[in-house]
Amino acid sequence: xxxxxxxxxxxxxxxxxxxxxxxxxxxxxxxxxxxxxxxxxxxxxxxxxxxxxxxxxxxxxxxxxxxxxxxxxxxxxxxxxxxxxxxxxxxxxxxxxxxxxxxxxxxxxxxxxxxxxxxxxxxxxxxxxxxxxxxxxxxxxxxxxxxxxxxxxxxxxxxxxxxxxx
Length: 166
Hints:
The chain is of the alpha+beta class and 166 residues long. 25% of the residues lie in helices and 23% in strands. The model is unreliable at 1-47 (pLDDT under 50).
C-alpha cells in the first residue's frame, strides 16, 4: 500500500518511479485526511475498487512512557507533532507518559496499526519528542468507538481537541 498526503508528490524523487527504499532510508509517515483516498499502486483497471480495499476510519490511541521530562518540553514536543501532522485529535501528557488519540483512514486494522506504531519513532527528532517507548496501542473501527461511547464505557469524544495534562 502506498499512501500520500493530498497535494503531496506521489514519488520521493527517484527517477523511474521506483517504490523501494535504500537500506536505512526512513519512510516519511503520512496520514490521509477523512474523505480522501490513498493510491493503491496503480489500480487494476476494473472500474472501482473492491469493498475490502476501501479505506475505513480507525480510532487510534497510542500510549508512550519513559524517563521523566519537564512538562513544558513534553507539551512543546506534542504541539510540534500536532502541527506537523494535523490528524492528531488530542494528547494527554505527564512528565513520564503521554497518550495520543486520532483517527486514521486505512484499508484495514493492520495498516492503521502499522502507521500508529511508527508515529513516535519516526517523529522523535523532528518534533523533539522524549525518548520514550510505546507501551500501548488500541485501534478500533468507527462503529466500535461510537458503540463504546454510546454505552458509556468507551473514551469520551476527543473534545476539546488539543494538548491536556493528565
